[in-house]
Amino acid sequence: MTAALRLDSACAAIGDPTRRRILDYLRGGERSAGDLAEQFPISRPAVSRHLRVLREAALVAERREGKHRIYRLEPAPLAVLDEWLASYRTFWAARLTDLKQLVESRASESRASESPKREA
Fold it and tell me: Nearest to residue 33, comparing CAs of 45, 21, 24, 41?
């Protein structure tokens, strides 16, 4: 799978708030499908569908332990997303630096114009 397809797949998968919450739970360690399902006010089949989307996007891995399915977070696809976002972080950091300088210069100008003027 190309980097572009991995990015598209990861973005589509994390676009749903339930799937993001599943990923949040899995940050704490492996969880069974049943444990995950108990965290949501939706049916177990609905949680299973969300897990399938996350598995297809390679964001979670599944292993079987007896009759239980155990899921764990696979963060590698998120690294592709992080790399893509890095250029936007740089862009916004520069814009925020420019904004800070503008605000500080206007504040300095405002203070200078408000200070009492000395007469000769």
Answer: 45
